[in-house]
Protein: Sugar ABC transporter ATP-binding protein
Amino acid sequence: MTLLSVEGMTKSFGGRRVLRDVSFTIGAGEIVGLVGTNGAGKSTLGDIVSGITPADAGTMTLLGHPYAPLSAQDACHLGVGVVEQLVTIDPELTVAQAVFRGTPQAGRQQSELREQARVLCREVDLDADPDDLVGELPHFVHPLVETARVLAEDTRLVVLDEVSAVLLPSEVTRLHAVAARLSRQGRGVLYISHRLPEMLEVVDRVLVLREGRIALDRPSASLDPVRLAGETVGGPVSLPVRRQPAALQSSRAEDAPLPAPARPARSDEVALQVRNLRVPGAVEGVDLVLRRGEVVGLTGHRTSGVREIAGALTGELPALSDEALLHGEPRLLTPSADVEALRLPAYRPDEDAYGVDPGETIARTLTDEPWGALTDLRKEIASLRRVIKTVHSLDVKTLSIRTSVGALSGGDQHKLALARWMASARDVVVLHEPARGLDVRARQQVRQLLDEATAHGTSVVVVSVDPDELADFCDRVGIVADGRVARWIDTGELAVDAVRERIVEAATAAA
Ligand SMILES: Nc1ncnc2c1ncn2[C@@H]1O[C@H](COP(=O)(O)OP(=O)(O)OP(=O)(O)O)[C@@H](O)[C@H]1O
Structure:
């Protein structure tokens, strides 16, 4: 039975045609994957289906009836719900209130609602009490609260918009179990993701959006991640190649363009050494050695201590160590009057909506010079050239560098923020989830940014939940469990997908 039918959908934003004559169906009990490059229009399509954005033209039917939602609330009443990656739920609500906030509650006992909320939380594998405040739950479980809400609203079709992007492999398995349960109940799921290997494990069929059209509509059984990645870009994609320790180049002037990295060669120079790192209640003795130009990954369950290790390195958490040396110079993890604190700079994609001001133009985001005060025309031209080069090399989908960053797709915003941040990254830095929400080409571009930085001596700690990102970007990956590094995986010995398998295996075992 057809649940949703979309016919001839089109949508433009300010002269840019995002969707062109898009048609597809989703059957009852079907899980359909929606993939495409950053800016391909996946969220726009998801937003139209879930009533957040109106289409310019086209029609939809839901269970055979005309379906034209006027708002997200309207779509929800008609049976379509959306769960987004960056969910904002009022932190003052209890879990029970959050779960039932979209459903009429008149005449229902609070105790009954709480009991039902408890059942729904169990259904989505959410370990929370109905009376817990949402604001006190870790942010990564908010999509699970939302999924429970969608179940409470008796939704026929659920749009999961990049929900898996922030989840660990074990949490993705949980999400997939929820999607499978929804499907067994006869509901439909539209599953939007860039994490192709995982997505292919759960979806029945895949739609590829390319240049605003459905370029492929095929059962998932006939696809593999590499082929699917090729379909998203409309040509072959090269497999990620194993990272090699960086070939260090001589230091460069601050604003000199980055030359292509030379052939890699091993560096034995230690950039950072920390012995017996402890964070009270979270980390119980971690040794970390980071060579110059090395990329070391850290991953682990939410309570493993991995975030706290990063917090200690960046000076956000009070921590102790027997010794911390930055290029041989002693540092303290907790500041004191005599010894300088370590305080590594950190990049986080989720801060301030991808770390950039959404109201700012692309041009201003990528330049540090105060343009209004710039009196030297050559400098201004050089600065604009650099902006245009970055926009081209990162393949940001825009008609103008005067476009505000907030109007770009999520992936394009993240690429710009990271490029801006990496341009000033020196020495030893911490990157949180550097490829989150990025398509296959964008991941390669980020990998290139990393390779260039490490070739110039920058050492990087990558903290991530994504096994593909860790396997592709890092020289070594530490699996953190119970406040210690339970295992190191050396990526240099294996092909990237074999590394990925090991990370998933080790991270799941340690969870
Ligand atoms: N409100 C808006 N105003 C202007 N342009 C917009 C708006 N919303 C989306 N766009 C543009 O529409 C295009 C598609 O964006 P959309 O977010 O749907 O892409 P996406 O495939 O979900 O990308 P990503 O994977 O990066 O999240 C982008 O070029 C984006 O700049």
